[in-house]
Design a protein that fits this description.
The complex is a heterodimer of chains A (about 550) and B (about 160). Chain A is an alpha+beta fold and about 550 residues long. In chain A, the strands form five sheets. Chain A has a seven-stranded antiparallel beta sheet with strand order 8-7-6-13-12-11-10, sandwiched between helices. A seven-stranded antiparallel beta sheet of chain A has the order 16-15-14-20-19-18-17, with helices on both faces. Chain A starts with 7 loop residues before the first strand and ends with a helix. Helix content of chain A is about 40%, strand content about 25%. In chain A, a hairpin with a 4-residue loop joins strand 12 and strand 13. Chain A folds into three domains: about 230 residues, no CATH class; about 70 residues, no CATH class; about 180 residues, no CATH class. Chain B is built from four helices and seven strands, in the order E-H-H-E-E-E-E-H-E-E-H. Chain B is elongated, with a radius of gyration of 20 Å. Classes of the chains: A alpha+beta (about 550), B alpha+beta (about 160). At the A-B interface, strand 21 and helix 16 of A face strand 4 of B. Strand 21 of chain A pairs antiparallel with strand 4 of chain B.
Chain lengths: ~550, ~160
């Protein structure tokens, strides 16, 4: 099958197939890491850990024994991983991705493609160095309902992703398993446009014709990146148009202008004030603090560094694009992630501007996607640091039609306005008692397609929830708000970092909003895009004679 | 100021038996506390310990009043497209759940609730924030309600 000069055509397996045999080798390095940490600890001069006894446990053992133990643990891990790999198999059906795994308890899981919410191609550092990748198929429905396939060759992973997306889009292949046309024509016959059109005569519709359209758009779709092999895919990636990228300078700037940096920078200042104003012996105090709670200090430092690292790693090289398969996001410094979120899968958007970002007018944009659930911080970012113009574009990316004659003007009012400008319903003056600073800045406005909720005087926040994505609505009021004639309207979205609340509205406004929003959500559900987004726009019919 | 009653359908108030059920649960705990306090007071002879049952009694009185107020405010309405659940007097809320958003419906009943012939109907959407449970639905009505909700949900199912 494999022709090293021209590459081969990868085709998603219809039969039970194991993952790439390298899989067990890509884990288990953590024990060698521990060993390294211990070695470094031994090399450090004694004053670093002084007389604290965190490492005393290790100090009782000779180095050689530790080396042996680490290697044993490593070997066992690899062994177990290998066994796990032997018992893990996956296959693709027309309706679902199937995975079965487990040594003791066997588990079979299927990710139904009509419930597909997102497909990610993830490359942890080690896998990335060797050109491998994992695929995460996220589907709606509870925790851990997705399927993770790790590891495959990067090229195979991308090809598999393309095929999953095409199937999920509702472009059905006529013969699912049949004669395996791709296999027979494979060697040296890359799936480009002319080839696909000849194939059209035999297997007329479905993937093939869809492929022809796609391949025509991209001359050499996926002559992929592993360097060693050139993989051609049975289904080319949908053509992608880049919408924005985040320059590294701005990313670093945004991290520098964060609360964590401020905390870090303020520490020496606090020390100086303590020394000169309060005459505290800072050195002794710090020494005492380290002596008593090194663990706490290390934890705090790790937390801060973790914050910087997450922001840097998650935002590095952040690129967003739009394709027929939906939204595409790429990012990552050591671990890279390529996310594809099909149209209509974004449940809610949050634009947030911390106080320090106001000067630059930067915004951090996060989204709710049903499948991502708890795994939020790394995957739910639509834009780590957007200029105002990019922020508007990011909203457009998710919601091409805001349902407003002047979308930019309206969003402008939503991002920066206050009071009732731009048709916003604001909090009444009585809200001043519970919300003295930002009551003028709270506002709610519904366009034909989405609900906008804004708040914040010094830091700004804006929620955008498409009407057809509203799960349910709530109206709440406690005794204090009741005394002031106020109520909150809550929009329930799927699990994720975005939890939209319109707080401190006048009771009458809140009740009217609840009713109107229920009606708008009803209307929205009627015109909702089908789960199979390609069949919704009628691409199949167009393809049949194309 | 009137509270929300814009539903087109009539509000169904939950069964008063829910009062009994909640009272039983609450008073069982309070009784344990009171007896414990009493026993301790008798054994140690410290009169101060008698405060424990006294406080428990006061708490029980207040709790009973709360339970009556809460249960009599708890109601649901089945509109054309949405289910509305209303609850609470001091901290009050209305939840509007479209039938098309329902993922599944639970009917639960503990031993006390079963003895009294009531059940709790809980709707689940794709959102963890949706708090749409109706406590104290008469058991026969609970099953009918579940079936009605499921049928309507299927008819209007709208993906996510």
């Amino acid at each position: 099958m494999t022709d090293t000069t021209t590459g081969y055509v990868y085709r998603a397996p219809r039969e039970w197939t194991r993952l790439h045999p390298v899989t067990p080798l890509l884990g288990g390095w953590v024990f060698l890491g521990l060993l390294l940490a211990y070695w470094i600890h031994n090399q450090l001069p004694a004053w670093v850990d002084g007389d604290n006894d965190n490492f005393e446990f290790f100090d009782r053992f000779p180095f050689l024994w530790l080396v042996l133990a680490a290697f044993l643990a490593f070997a066992v891990t690899i062994g177990v991983s290998f066994w796990q790999w032997r018992r893990t198999e996956y296959r693709i059906g027309d309706d679902a991705v199937y995975l079965r795994q487990g040594i003791v308890t066997r588990q079979q899981r299927q990710a139904r493609l009509d419930r597909l919410q997102a497909v990610d191609v993830v490359q942890p550092l080690l896998a990335r160095l060797f050109g491998f990748a994992a695929i995460n198929v996220q589907v709606a429905g509870g925790q851990k309902s997705g399927v993770e396939l790790k590891f495959l060759r990067l090229g195979d992973a991308e090809a598999l992703r393309n095929e999953i997306l095409v199937l999920a889009a509702g472009v059905k292949e006529e013969k699912a398993t049949g004669d395996d046309a791709a296999g027979t024509e494979a060697p040296g016959a890359p799936a480009t446009a002319p080839d696909a059109t000849t194939a059209d005569t035999t297997a007329s519709s479905g993937i093939r014709s869809h492929l022809a359209e796609r391949a025509g758009a991209m001359s050499n779709p996926e002559a992929i990146l592993t360097g060693k092999e050139r993989v051609r895919t049975a289904v080319a990636a949908a053509e992608e148009r880049e919408v924005y990228t985040v320059p590294i300078g701005r990313l670093l700037g945004s991290i520098a202008l964060s609360g964590a940096t401020l905390t870090l920078l303020s520490l020496p200042f606090i020390g100086l004030v303590a020394f000169f104003v309060f005459r505290v012996d800072v050195v002794a105090a710090v020494g005492a603090a380290i002596g008593t709670s090194l663990v706490a200090i290390v934890t705090a430092a790790a937390g801060l560094l973790g914050f910087f690292w997450t922001r840097l790693n998650g935002g590095f090289g952040f690129t967003a694009g739009i394709s027929a398969d939906g939204l595409r996001l790429r990012h990552g410094l050591t671990e890279t992630r390529r996310q594809t979120v099909p149209p209509g899968r974004v449940q809610a958007i949050r634009l947030y501007q911390p106080f320090l970002w106001r000067g630059q007018d930067w915004w951090r944009i996060t989204i709710n996607v049903a499948g991502y659930g708890e795994d939020q911080e790394s995957v739910s970012v639509l834009h780590p640091v957007a200029t105002r113009e990019e922020a508007l574009r990011a909203v457009w990316l998710v919601l091409p039609d805001l349902g407003d004659p002047d979308p930019y003007g309206t969003l402008g009012h939503a991002l920066h306005g206050h009071g009732a400008d731009g048709g916003f319903t604001t909090s009444p003056a009585s809200a001043r008692r519970v919300d003295p600073f930002q009551w003028r800045f709270r506002g709610v406005r519904a366009t034909d397609r989405a609900l906008l909720i804004r708040r914040g005087r010094w830091e700004r926040e804006l929620f955008v929830v498409p009407h057809e994505r509203t799960q349910s609505l709530g109206l709440t009021q406690g005794p204090i708000r009741r005394a002031l004639g106020l109520a909150n309207v809550v929009v329930h979205s799927t699990q994720g970092p975005v939890t939209p609340v319109a707080a401190h509205l006048a009771v009458d406004d809140a009740m009217a909003l609840l009713d109107a929003q229920a009606a708008r959500a009803r209307e929205g559900r009627r015109r909702q895009t089908a789960e199979q987004w390609m069949s919704a726009v009628g691409l199949e019919e167009g393809d049949a004679h194309g | 100021m009137a509270w929300y009653d814009n539903a087109a359908a009539p509000w169904n108030f939950v069964s008063r038996k829910l009062i009994t059920a909640r009272m039983i649960t609450m008073w069982i705990w309070l009784a344990i506390l009171m007896l414990g306090g009493l026993a301790a007071a008798l054994i140690t002879g410290a009169a101060l310990l008698l405060l424990v049952p006294a406080v428990a009694l006061v708490l029980g009185g207040w709790g009973s009043w709360l339970i009556v107020r809460q249960v009599t405010a708890h109601a649901w309405a089945e509109d054309e497209e949405d289910l509305l659940v209303r609850r609470g007097r001091m901290f009050r809320s209305v939840t509007v759940v479209p039938y098309g958003r329902m993922q599944f419906v639970d009917v639960k009943a503990g031993p006390i609730e079963r003895a009294l012939g009531i059940a709790k109907v809980q709707l689940h959407t794709a959102s963890p924030g949706t708090d749409a449970s109706i406590s104290g639905v008469p058991a026969s009505e609970a099953d009918r309600l579940r079936d009605r909700l499921t049928t309507r949900g299927e008819a209007r199912l709208a993906g996510l």
